[in-house]
Design brief:
By secondary structure, this protein is α+β, with helices and mostly antiparallel strands. 54% of the residues lie in helices and 12% in strands. The longest helix has 32 residues. The radius of gyration is 22 Å and the shape is globular. Bound molecules: protoporphyrin IX containing FE (HEM). The site of protoporphyrin IX containing FE (HEM) has 23 residues, from α13 and α18.
Length: 449
Amino acid sequence: MPNTKKYNYPKSLSILKFFWNAEAIRKNPIPFHRRFFDKHGDTFAFRLSRKKYLLLSRDKEVVEHILRKNHKNYYKSKLQTHFLSKYLGHGLLTVNGEYWLQQRRLIQPAFRKHKMEQLVGLMQATIEAELAQVSKERETDVFPIMNRLAFQVVAKSLFHLSATEETLERLQYIIQQVQEFLVKEVRLPHKGWWFKLSGQVKRHLELSQESRDILQEIIEERKRSQENHDDLLDMLLATRYEDTGEPMSLKQLIDEITILFVAGHETTANALSFTAWLLAKHPEVQQKVYEEASKVAQQASNPIEQIQQLEYTKAVIDESMRLYPPAWITDRENLEDDTLAGYHIRKDTLVGVSFYELHRHPDYWEAPLLFKPERFLGENKKKSAGVYYPFGAGPRLCIGLGFAIYEMVLAVSHLVQNYSLTTQEEVIKVNPLITLKPVDVTVTFKPRS
Ligand code: HEM
């Protein structure tokens, strides 16, 4: 018998239902995802046009397939490439294919373990300086603190002393503005005409250009000075393409640095804010982090050794990113027809995976809604293999993973050593934009001595 039905998709939800709920979904898609998964199974579909489907999944097999097993057939969608690159340029995060591979090979060495170890001293000094400034003894919105800290850590690691405080503040302002506008454009596509007409698109493109000009000035000044700073900029300036022996062009360097700022600061700021709130809410866990930090500070003075010994602190951060993964969702599109978790899908199917739901899936996690850092200690940790992806997986695994872990372990340990954290807020509100952000989380920082 001829095969009359070439493709088969999971249960398709009515697009009408989607439009009916569009405004609420736009504000916070997470409750809808949960409801749809519970009702229709771990992968469901929307038919976007006659030939185009969107699949949304929390199935570990789907994630494994698109990120690792058959990653060559899955590119990032236009949302992650075309839209982001309009303002952020063409850096690692926003490109696909051969160009991505070439850039990844070039930049990867700057993020190797021994290079990260060179940056740790700088990171620690920046964290200490930032955390010394928190308002004490009164309820404080924790996100702006962690956001500034994470921005400063990336900025100092990139440029060490080559940029003034005012320049960094301006850069942070621009990156923030552009990111916020980008989210607005993605979430309100029907208002695109208004954004153009009202001059908002132009203004944000100008801001992007201003940040590129600032970066260009810093790079050119560094090249002129011929000084050695042992920071990321030095490492990026020193790398050479294998085939040509050439360095990156100025444009490529600016694109990549912009992406490192964007990918590397908000994600970390979110994770640190969620962790601070979780610690404030769970004093018994906070006490253990404090005891570990005090013990390790006595045993080792070198920050690398300290980080290696701060196992419980690391487990707290892992558990925080399980419940609140800053990169809460990602997507891919297949270049060729494929069979994915039993479904035969046409090329160009948009496949979204919710790390947020995967990390809370009752089949994969015991008591998934409870905050239990012990899940990530010793033998227990093995259970998270294949169902825990805060940094993605496969060839496009976060390049800043080591950087982020060093930074977060140092920051959490330093925070708890110096302050006792409390909160009045029983429940945390989240805003799932491009990253999962906490909303108005207040914590009180009481100095320990
Ligand atoms: C808690 C902090 C962080 C989290 C949760 C995080 C998460 C992620 C995830 C999930 C991806 C993969 C996205 C996908 O496959 O679609 C990614 C990619 C990336 N991240 Fe991170 N990230 C963090 C920190 C950083 C830092 C500190 C940097 C740099 C300083 C960075 C730079 C990048 C870059 C450049 C990519 C693109 C890599 C590629 O496609 O080759 N990230 N990140």
